[in-house]
Design a protein that fits this description.
elongated, 7-stranded mixed β-sheet, 174 residues, mainly beta, 3 helices
Amino acid sequence: MRSKLDPRAPLVLDTRELGRRPGSQRTVNLTAEAPAELGIEILGVPEGSEVTFDLRLEAVMEGVLVSGSATADLEGECARCLEPIEDEITIDIQELFLYDDTRDASAASGDDEETGVRRTEGDLIDLEPVLRDAVVLALPFQPLCQPDCEGLCPECGVRLLDHPGHAHEESVDP
């Protein structure tokens, strides 16, 4: 079976060294460039920035268990005041990649994309979907520049943290 994955791609790992002996393991320390659109619209990992992985690959009966962490820089803007945000994120990764030739009757009838089952392709595993899922789930729904950010004045747009006590004349009813 020909794999669609490119073994030279930065987020593709070769598991041939592990063999298929349950219990065999190896550690992988890897730095790769972040793929495009890694995050949510307002906050994410810039494309091409470094993502550092510290992983353990372990052969189990059904496949390869990948566990460890990934660290990357974040860039975006505050959901309330639109100030730039720069931060770092460290996410935990734990994913089982089933061997591509070990399909049981129930799995053969279902689509892997729908069931969320990840599989090896030959001896290769692709970390990009795992990284993408982990980053998106770890990001805050509404990122803030600081926990007490008050946002912008609805009348004039001034940042309220920069101007405490900001007020406007009471509007006259025409």
